Amino acid sequence: MNRAAAAPDPSCRIDVWLWRARFFKTRNLAGGYVAAGRVRLIRGANGVRLDKASRTVRQGDEIVFVLGGRAVTLRILAMGERRGPASEARALYELIAETDPPESP
Q: What is the pTM (predicted TM-score) of this model?
């Protein structure tokens, strides 16, 4: 099989994806969040803390991060072509779980 003819596995930088999915206002903010080690990628049975904004994600990957004091777990459904309106951004992921922070005594 010719490798050039095979469809490439669509992937996207994590900072670009978080920006397109409208979790951050700028790619720079998304990249800083990732570089701080605040995003965990789950691919198959393996989980790894992302440390660089250039790390790629693919359709079917799950990511876990804390946003607004809540732990959010998402499944990536699409890469997206641009940073569009909120309705377009919501089509990029599926919310798996959202956990409230523990109550303080």
A: 0.85
